[in-house]
Design a protein that fits this description.
BirA Bifunctional Protein, domain 2; three-stranded antiparallel β-sheet; 22 helices; 8 strands; elongated; disordered C terminus; Relaxase/Mobilization Nuclease Family Protein
């Protein structure tokens, strides 16, 4: 159940015409009253002799009783209450009870006080009602509407439970503003999948990902093709900015601009500047030295993993900073990854945007490594979906999945219900993106593992049992065991102790949330041992060369020389 308080208005009759009218697309069916301040209130929807004007005069009677100078400028209060598509259809009596509960919760009409405002609840569809109220009480006083939005949301959560409806997570007023119905209708008319507000929010998020200065931020915005206007104080100081999409105009043909704060509380200029507050005074800008997508993904993997290892042991403000900066990494990945992973990564970044904001204020500065990782990803350019680019993409998604999972657990402990749900949704999208990215590199490793000499396989299985006795049999039964066996053989060929390294990477973080423990261990080992993520050209230990899925022989190249090329 979603209650939404709309902008206050001046004309009661205008809103009545809309509520009882056909709607913008003939979607209003059988408009009628389900509840009101007075059980005898006339209903223009069911009584042909009642006019809208008569109902309007009754609603506005307390307003007329006041001197003109005492009347509020905008006296029309409007609340819509909508159920979800999977909820059962409520009866008129049930919607009437919902309306009475809502106006009481908001402070519009409390029966215990005896002198409330006049209001009506109109139903013109199965799934929602509209409540219209005049903001003057019968005794001439104004209603107390402080925190009315918070109160009706809390009441909605109780009604969901009592009426057996889909239960939504309680909010904390940190969510970005949702598109209005007018914005959604406009998007439909323009043939857009998303509203302009949503497109601009994503564009601004991507522009700020890893940016170091406001000049760089504005340059990225303009390069993305959006219109930018800034607000400057008489002193010359920059106070704010707003953005518009070319072609999105109002009735006068002028661009429709959105201030950053209206796209998201964390996208206002002061909040964006906080991201740069961790820099020391006078510290020069770091030069941008693109090093290739694969190297940028390796560094991002390391930064994400370092954050994962300490998030449970640091102050909440530092954890909030890591979570916010991880959102920048996801935004950077979404705009630089190959096509077959881009959609899921984009959805993951969009979902995690909700998880990156809470009432815990981020202690900026601790997140510099993650923000630098986002910057590296942006400036290293788009990655190919194959070779080391594709394999390191799988690696970094795997690390991002664990950070997002830790963020979900942290939010759940703090009772941040919406943020925890958003992080879990982001994790689902990351899992799907990982499966697309990892299919080829894990496939290559699997072929190599199945081609290992039997003594080599037995040696790796013994190491697994020694390092992880509790998980060994589960891992050995997984489809990914062959890829892990090949990786253990590669760590040995590179001069590492596979048993000690396996125990080390497994102990760093829980593995229960992993869909494939063997896959997780593969990427942890390859990152920690600095092995190439793409094992296409590595030789088989203790065995002859074999044909890879791509038709290229895997023998004849040392691990050291391949690792040097991949760095």
């Amino acid at each position: 159940m979603v209650p939404k308080i709309h902008k206050r208005g001046k004309r009661t009759i205008g809103l009545l015409y809309y509520l009882y009218g056909p709607g913008k697309a003939e979607e209003h069916i059988d408009p009628h009253l389900v509840a009101s301040w007075d059980h005898a209130a006339p209903d223009p929807g069911r009584d042909a002799e009642v006019t809208f004007k008569q109902l309007q005069q009754l609603l506005d009677q307390p307003l007329v009783n006041l001197d003109e100078g005492e009347r509020p400028g905008k006296h029309v209060w409007h609340l819509s209450v909508r159920n979800g598509p999977t909820d059962r259809i409520l009866s008129d009596d049930e919607w009437g009870d919902v309306a009475r509960r809502m106006v009481a919760a908001a402070g519009i009409d409390d029966p215990d006080q005896g002198a409330g405002c006049r209001w009506v609840a109109v139903r013109h569809a199965d799934d929602h009602i509209h409540i219209l109220a005049t903001l003057v009480r019968e005794d001439g006083y104004r209603p107390d509407l402080d925190f009315d939005a918070v109160r009706v949301q809390a009441e909605a959560r109780l009604l969901e439970q009592e009426l057996g409806l889909r239960r939504l997570n309680p909010g904390d007023c940190t969510a970005a503003k949702r598109p209005t119905s007018a914005e959604r209708h406009k998007a439909t008319r323009m043939g857009r999948e998303r509203t302009v507000r949503e497109e601009l929010r994503e564009t601004v998020r991507r522009a700020v990902a890893g940016a170091e200065t406001q000049e760089e931020f504005f340059q990225r915005l303009r390069a993305a093709g959006v219109l930018v206007r800034t607000r400057v104080a008489p002193s010359g100081d920059l106070l704010g900015y707003k953005v518009a999409l070319p072609g999105d105009v109002n009735a006068d043909g002028e661009p429709v601009f959105y201030p950053g704060a209206k796209l998201g509380a964390d996208l206002s200029l002061p909040r964006i500047r906080e991201r740069w507050s961790g820099r020391r005074a006078g510290e020069p800008d770091k030069p941008v030295v693109p090093s290739g997508p694969a190297q940028a993904r390796r560094r991002a993997s390391a930064a994400l993993w370092e954050a994962v290892l300490v998030m449970d042991r640091v102050d909440d403000t530092v954890t909030a900073a890591y979570i916010a900066a991880a959102g920048e990494v996801l935004d950077a990945l979404a705009q630089t990854s190959a096509v077959h992973t881009r959609r899921e990564l984009r959805e993951a970044a969009s979902a995690f945007e909700r998880a990156s904001r809470s009432h815990v204020r981020a202690a900026r500065g601790h997140d510099r490594a993650l923000r630098q990782a986002a910057r590296d990803l942006v400036y290293s350019g788009p990655a190919l979906g194959r070779g080391e680019d594709g394999a390191t993409t799988a690696m970094v998604i795997d690390m991002a999945f664990f950070l997002v999972t830790v963020a979900a657990h942290w939010h759940a402990r703090k009772e941040h219900a919406q943020q925890a749900a958003a992080a879990r949704l982001a994790a689902d999208h990351l899992r799907a993106a990982y499966q697309a990215a990892a299919a080829h590199p894990i496939g290559v490793l699997t072929v190599r593992g199945r081609s290992l000499a039997l003594p080599v396989v037995r040696r790796q299985a013994a190491r697994l049992r020694q390092a992880l006795p509790e998980l060994a049999e589960q891992v050995l039964a997984e489809p990914g065991w062959a890829a892990l066996a090949a990786t253990l053989a590669d760590t040995e060929a590179a001069g590492h102790d596979p048993t000690a390294l396996l125990a080390e990477v497994a102990a760093h973080r829980e593995l229960a949330s992993a869909e494939s423990v063997s896959d997780v261990l593969v990427w942890r080992l390859r990152r920690t041992a600095d092995l190439p993520a793409d094992a296409q050209a590595l030789p088989l230990p203790d065995g002859p060369s074999v044909q890879s899925p791509a038709g290229r022989k895997t023998g004849g190249t040392t691990a050291r020389s391949h690792r040097h090329r991949g760095r």
